[in-house]
Amino acid sequence: MKKVKFFIMSMVAVLLVSCGTTNTVPITGRKQRLMVSDGEVLTLSTQQYQEFMKSAKLSTNATNTAMVKRVGTNLANAVVNFLNENGMQNDVQNYQWTFNLVADNQANAWCMPGGLIVVYEGLLPITKDEASLAIVLGHEIAHAVARHSAEQMSKQIQQQYGVQGAGVLASILGVGDNTIALGQAAAAQGLSFLNLKYSRDNENEADHLGLIFAAMAGYDPSVAVSFWERMSAASGNKSTAEFLSDHPSDATRIKNIQGWLPEAQKYYKPKTTTTTTKKTTTKKTTTKKKK
């Protein structure tokens, strides 16, 4: 009986490895196994984003709204250019970059798959400037580019298959269209992108990529250290142990960012602005000294 059970579980493992696709995260080069397609994830993401925006109250601050859209667009353009220049043109079509500022006092921002981003007004007193806002938006954009949502969904599906064991094996073998099985498994998770928590590894990777994306867009990545120090102070220096949290501790995050800064600086090209000034002619007047 033990041999039969071992054989069945081994077959499940083999099927899990053979299902899905292998994706490479840009810049970090990390390999990830995805069991859900971009189409499945983007469809769910768009639906949930639209539902959220129906009940959300957009900011009435025109200046701040324009800033969020401007910084977000600069980052998105830089990322798209990078992907196009590095043979990842197929990835570009998955994004419908959207940046909205919501009237909410939370110091928060998030991004759904496909580049659907929301910033809460409560975050702006902490970012203080466009460069620090770019650090936040770069981090959120990185979650989308690195397909972290699809990765978390895939892990949930794998866990579900593992628990079901032999039943899953029989189900997979009996279903011709594996996409249906995966879709049902994803639906069974009660998926909500708003409540989806990334692992600490994903958060670290988003910090890493976000620094570089901000630098690509012409924003100084070094401001990330002071921003996260302000964010830490604003959060009240919560004492939750790092191993109990999905996010790295503030101290660990800042230390990691300092380590990545030399790499990010290689991508940094400050934005240059050209100004035209009218030529002015100054007349010099000389006075003869009386003898």
From TrEMBL:
A Gene Ontology CC term for this entry? membrane
Cofactor binding note: Binds 1 zinc ion per subunit.
Signal peptide positions (record): 1-24
So which domain of life are we looking at?
A: Bacteria
Q: Where is the composition biased (Basic residues)?
A: 280-291
According to the UniProt record, where is the region Disordered?
Answer: 271-291
Concerning CDD domains, the annotation shows: M48C_Oma1_like
Under InterPro entries, the record lists: Mito/Outer_Membr_Metalloprot (IPR051156), Peptidase_M48 (IPR001915)
Family listed: Belongs to the peptidase M48 family.
The name of this protein is: Peptidase family M48
